[in-house]
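tool=predict chain=A
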Amino acid sequence: MSPVDEKRGETFVMRGEARSASEEAISFSTFIVGLGTAVLIYLGDAPNPETGQTSKDLPLARQNLELLSMLREKTRGNLSVDEEKLFDGLLADMRLRFVEASKR
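tool=predict ok
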C-alpha cells in the first residue's frame, strides 16, 4: 500500500480512501464539547437542533453532566494539556449552569 493510501488518525493508522471533512473521525475535544452542548440543550440554554425550541430537562442534563464527570475521572493523566484545560473549564461551566438552572 502506498503512503497516499494511508491516513493517520490520532492514535491509529487508517488505510483506504480519503474521506470528506464530514466523515472525518472527531477529536476528543470535539466529543466532549458535543456532550457539553447536550447539557446546554437539556438545561434550556440552547435550542434543540431538531426542533429549534428550548426546553428544560434537568434529569437528562444531570445524566450528561455525570457522564462528563465520569469521563474526566477515567481520562485523568491521559490527556494533553490543552484537552485538560478544555475539559476542566467545560465541566466547571456546566456544573455552574446546572446549579443555576436548578434554582429557576
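Helices lie at 28-43, 58-75, 81-103. The chain has three helices and two strands.
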